[in-house]
Amino acid sequence: MKHLLIATALLAFGITLKAEDPINLLNVSYDPTRELYAEFNAAFAADYLKKTGKTVKIDQSHGGSGKQARAVIDGLKADVVTLALAGDIDSIADKGRQLPKDWQSRLPLNSTPYSSTIVFLVRKGNPKGLKDWGDLVKPGIEVITPNPKTSGGARWNYLAAWGWAKKANGGSDEKAQAFVKDLFAHVPVLDTGARGAGTTFVQRGIGDVLLAWENEAYLAVKETPDAVEFVTPSLSILAEPPVALVDKVVDRKGTREVAEAYLKFLYTPEAQDLIGKHFYRPTDPSAVAKYGDRFKKLDLVTIADFGGWAQVQKLHFADGGIFDKITIK
Amino acid sequence: MHFRSHSVLPGFGPTLGITVLYLSLIVLIPLGALVLKTSELTWTVFWSTVTDPRVLASYRLSFGAAAIAALINAVFGVIVAWVLVRYRFPGKALIDALVDLPFALPTAVAGIALTALYAPNGWLGQLLTPLGIKVAYDWKGVVVALTFIGLPFVVRTVQPILEELGKDVEEAAVSLGANRWQTITRVILPELWPAILTGFALAFARAVGEYGSVVFISGNLPMKTEITPLLIITKLEQYEYAQATAIAVVMLVVSFILLLLINLLQHWISRRRA
Prior knowledge:
heterodimer; A: alpha/beta; D-Maltodextrin-Binding Protein, domain 2; four-stranded mixed beta sheet; 15 helices; 14% strand
C-alpha cells in the first residue's frame, strides 16, 4: 500500500511539474549511490544546459535495490533506474514489462558504466587478524551482512563468499555451500539493506567484520578513520550495478531524449572522474589511470561464472533455494 | 430492522447504514482484497507457505512477544493509571501526556532509539551485557519494542473506570473490615477486569502487526528473531504477493480468534458480576 501511495504522490508531483519549464527526470537508484548521484546530477544538468540550453532537474530516490525495483513495477515513474544488480532490472522487464528484455545490450559495457566489488571492513588495527574469507568462520568471529533476500549488496556478498570457497576447494560447489552456511552461522544480525548493516557495524559496534560494497567501505573509513579499516580479500566478485532507461515512462513523459543523454553522460571522462572520486571502479582509461592505485588488484569472479542472474536467483535466493536451506537448521 | 423497531431512540436505520458502509470501506473491502489475492494460490501452495518452518517460528515470536508485551503493559498500565487517578503530585499533567507519546512517535524512530540504548555499546546495553543479558538483537528486544508501542492502551482504558470508581467504594470496604489486599483483589480489581482485558487486547493486536520499530532491534535472524510482518515484506520484495497475503491472512485469522476469545472472556466476567 505504501509504495502505491508514494507512486501516486510522485505521479501527482510529476504532473504539476510537467506544466513548468524545466524537464524533470527521476533516477531510482539503490542505497549507497547517494553521494555519487548528488554530484553527477549537478554535472549533467550543467552540461545539458550548455549543450541544449534546456534546464533539467533530476530527482533521486534511494533504497534497497529489490525494494526500488518493486516500487517501479508497482508504478513509481522512474525515467531511469540505476540499481545494484541486473537481476533487479530484469524483474522490471519481466514483471512490469516497462522495458525490453534485451535492455542490457542497449548501452556500452553491458550497460555498466562503473563497477565495484565486495571487501571487508574490520575494527581499527584488525584485532582479530582477518585477512581472507577463510578467517571469517573461525570460532567467535561475528560477521555483519544484510539479508540477501532483500539487499542487492548482500547477494554480491553471498556470491563472493561462494566464489572464494569454490576456488579454495578445487571447484566443489558442495564445499562452497558448506562454507557459506558456516559463514551465515556467524551472522548475529541480518539488516534489510546495506546502509542498515553499515550502521549496525559502525555505530552499534556489533560484529568483527562487515561485508561491504568497496565504495561503502571507503566511505566508512573516510568518515570514521579511527574506528574501522579496510581489508581486501584475495578473491571477490566483480559487482556490476547496471543502468537503464524505463521505456514506458520516458515515452509517456516525453523524456526519452534527455534520459538517454543522462545515461550516456555516465560514460564521459567527466562523469568517470566523479565515479572514481566516489570510490566506484571507473571504466574510462584516464579515470582508471588516475584512481587506479586506490583499487587493489584482486581475483574477481563474475556473475557469468554463476550462470547469470536468472540462474542465480532461482538456485540461490528464491523461496526454498539454497539460501533458505542453509539458514534454516 | 423489525427486531429493533421498538427502540425509543430514532435513527437506528441510518446510523447502522453508515456504520456498515464505513466499516466496509475502511476494513472489509481491504481485507476482502487480501483474501481474494490469497485465493490465487492453490491449496497446497497456501498450506506449504503458511506452515513453512521459518514462518511457523515467526508466528511464535510475533504472537509470543506480543502476548508478553501486552501482559507487561497490563500490569504496569494499571499501576500507572492508578497513580494518575488517585494521587496528586507535581508534574502529573506531564506524566499523563507522556503516556500517549508512543502513539505519536514514528515507530521507526522508536526502534532506532531503543536499539541505540540496548545495543551492547548503548547506555543500557553496556550495563546489561556484563550480566550476560542480551536485549537488542534478541527476542527480548522485540518484547521491549512492543511494550513501548503498547503502553498507552491499558492506561487509557483503565483510567476512566478508576475515575468513576471513586474513593468512597474503597473507604466503604475498609470500614467494613477489609484489609488492603482484600480491598484490591475483592473490590477494585473485579471492577477493572473488563477494562484491563480491553486494554490488553488492544495492546496485543497492535503489537502483533508492528513492523517499524521491531526490525531495527530484533536482528532479523531466520528462525530466531524474525517477526511475521518482516517475512511478509520479504515475500513482497520477491514479488510473491499472493504468498505474502497468505501469511497475512493467517495472522489475521489467528488475531481475530484471539481477540474474540478475549471479548468472550470479558463478556463472561461482566455477566458473572451482574
